[in-house]
Amino acid sequence: MIVKRFLDTNILLYGYDLDAPAKRSIAQALIETAWLQPGETAVSVQVLQEFYVNFLRKGHSPQEAAVLITDFSIWPVIDNTLALFRLGLSLQLRWQLSLWDAMILAAAHTSGASELITEDLNHGQDYGGVRVVNPFL
Questions:
Q1: 49-82 pLDDT tens trace
Q2: Where are the domains of the chain?
Q3: pTM of the entire structure?
Q4: Phi, psi of 94 (to 5 degrees)
Q5: Which of 2, 27, 110, 115 could form a disulfide with 14 if both were Cys (CB 3.0 to 4.6 A apart)?
Q6: Does the 5-133 domain belong in CATH 3.40.50.720?
Q7: Residue 80 has what DSSP assignment?
């Protein structure tokens, strides 16, 4: 699988965040691009899990979250596997990242994405062929 970009959880969450209108607008544009360019934007099971938990914390219903998860699952989704976990561990050591950020990076690598869209890592940094883009800067 080779995609252009990988979306981190925060992008999906901001797409539905009524309390951050500027970030919401940017995130919605990224989500819309994912819909309009099928197969070019990926997420991971971890991203979907994190979205679900945090979406509920923001007061949304499990039913609404489940519908969105189903919608996002149309995009290429990187599964949690032992191989992905091992890659995440190696990236964690190499780049001195938290395990969760390393797992997102591992999923982006696995998807073949050249861009990881997130606000959680260093904007512009290249992590072995995956460049971080913070769209909110």
A1: 999 999 999 999 999 999 999 999 999 999 999 9
A2: 5-133
A3: 0.96
A4: -65, -45
A5: 27
A6: no
A7: P
